[in-house]
Design goal:
- By secondary structure, the protein is an all-alpha fold.
- The chain has 2 domains: 5-53, no CATH class; 73-136.
- The chain has helices at residues 5-15, 21-32, 35-53, 61-68, 71-101, 108-136.
- The mean pLDDT is 84.
- The protein binds zinc ion.
């Protein structure tokens, strides 16, 4: 708990770097003569350093490159996608066939199948557009990886 009322409002702003140069200088002058604020600042600085040390780091590109070098991993992932896509397409074909057999009346199933089909087609178009955009803007597209 802080003994000095100034730390509550200004201490956190100081630590987070949200003060102007003038405010910073003024707060530092205050801290020079206030043991309570100095103690608080010190403990927050140590906590900050500790948090920085245990911060999770994202895997590097080199890590993912090594990971995907495994033929098994690549085949596994692609097989999973092919199986999922095949299953989804079979369900879609079945649903569309059912839809056309009962097209004379609009049912809950009809609407659900139409929404799913529209979403699927839109997603497919979106993915193709993304890939095209990515390919056109890839500065390394002529570099063999
Ligand atoms: Zn103080």
């Amino acid at each position: 708990m802080t003994d000095c009322p100034r730390f509550e409002g200004e201490g956190m702003k100081y630590i987070d770097g949200e003060m102007s140069a003038v405010e910073r200088a003024e707060f530092e002058r205050h801290c020079a003569g206030c043991a309570s604020c100095r103690r608080e600042l010190d403990s927050f600085t140590r906590l900050d350093a500790l948090a920085g040390r245990v911060k999770m780091v994202d895997p590097t590109d080199a890590f993912w490159e090594r990971y995907w070098r495994s033929v098994y991993r690549r085949v596994e992932r692609k097989t999973a996608w092919v199986l999922m896509l095949a299953g989804a397409l079979m369900i879609a074909v079945y649903a569309l066939r059912q839809l056309f057999e009962s097209f004379h009346r609009v049912t809950f199933e009809t609407i659900a199948v139409l929404l799913f089909a529209a979403g699927f087609v839109l997603l497919l178009v979106s993915l193709i557009r993304e890939r095209c955009h990515q390919y056109k803007n890839d500065p390394y597209k002529d570099v063999k990886r």
